[in-house]
Amino acid sequence: MRWPTRRGGEDTDADAVEEAPDGQTETVAADETDFSEATAEVEVEESEHDNRPARARRRISWRRAVAYGVLPAVALLLASVAGFLKYQNYSVGDPDPARESVRAATDGTVALLSYRPDTVQKDLEAARGRLTGTFLDTYTKLTHDVVIPGAQQKQVAAVATVPAAASTSATSTHAVVLLFVDQTVTIGKDAPTNTASSVRVTLNKVDNRWLISQFDPV
C-alpha cells in the first residue's frame, strides 16, 4: 500500500482511487448504482403521488361543470319546452268560459258606466253593443230618457274602473261574474265624487260573443 503524495500542498485522491484494490472500486460503483435506482424509485413514487390529486381535481372540475353548467341549462330547456307546450295547448285548445266571461263583464261594465258630456250619446250607444235580452231594452230606455239628456245639460262626466272581478259560475253559453266597481262622477265644475259598489253581472254567449243580460247591484 502506498500513501497518497502531495502535489503543491494537495492530496492526489485520484491516484489513491486508481491504486485501491479492485474489490473496493467495484463496491463503490455498486453502491452508486443502488443509490441511483433508489432515487429513481422515489421519483416515480413522487410522480405517481403528484398525479393522483391532478386526476381528482379533473373529476371535481367535471362534477362542478355538470352541477353548475349542464343541469341548470337542462332545467331551463325543460321549463321552456313546458311553457311552449302550455301556450300551444292554450292557444289551440278549448276556450275558457270563466276567463272570457270575466273579461267581457269587466269591459262591458266600464263601457256602461263611463261617458263624457260632449260624447255621452256616442259612448252609451256604443256600450249597447255589449248587451242582450231585456237588459238591452231597459238600458236603452234609461240612457235615452235620463242619462244622455242629464249629462249634456249638467255637464256630467263619469269614469268607471273595476279593481277586482271573479267568476261565480261559467258554462260554454252562460256565466255569472261578481265585480267590484269604482265610479268617479264630476258635475260641471264641482269636485268629483267617488262611489264604490259591487255588481253581479250575468252573461250569455250569443254568436260567439259574451253579452251582458243582467246587471244587478249587490
Number of helices: 5
By secondary-structure content and strand pairing, the structural class works out as: alpha+beta
Order of helices and strands: EEHHHHHEEEE
Number of domains: 2
Spatial strand order of the main sheet: 3-4-5-6
Give the low-confidence spans. 1-36, 42-50
- What percentage of amino acids are in beta strands? 25-35%
Average pLDDT figure:
76
CATH class of the largest domain reads Alpha Beta
Distance between the termini: 133 Å
Say how many strands there are.
Answer: 6
Label the overall shape.
globular
| CATH architect. name of the largest domain | Roll
CATH superfamily of the largest domain: VirB8 protein
Cα gyration radius (Å): 49 Å
Percent range of helical residues: 55-70%
Q: Please give the largest β-sheet.
A: 4 strands, antiparallel
**CATH fold label of the largest domain:** Nuclear Transport Factor 2, Chain: A
Which key features would you list for this structure?
218 residues, alpha+beta, Nuclear Transport Factor 2, Chain: A, 2 domains, 4-stranded antiparallel sheet, 6 strands, 57% helix, globular, disordered N terminus
Description:
Helices cover 57% and strands 26% of the residues. The protein is an alpha+beta fold and 218 residues long. The chain folds into two domains: 1-93; 97-217, VirB8 protein (Nuclear Transport Factor 2, Chain: A, Roll), CATH 3.10.450. Strands 3-4-5-6 form a four-stranded antiparallel β-sheet. The protein has a two-stranded antiparallel sheet with strand order 1-2. A hairpin with a 3-residue loop joins strand 3 and strand 4. Helix 4 packs antiparallel against helix 5 (133-154). The chain is globular and about 45 Å long.
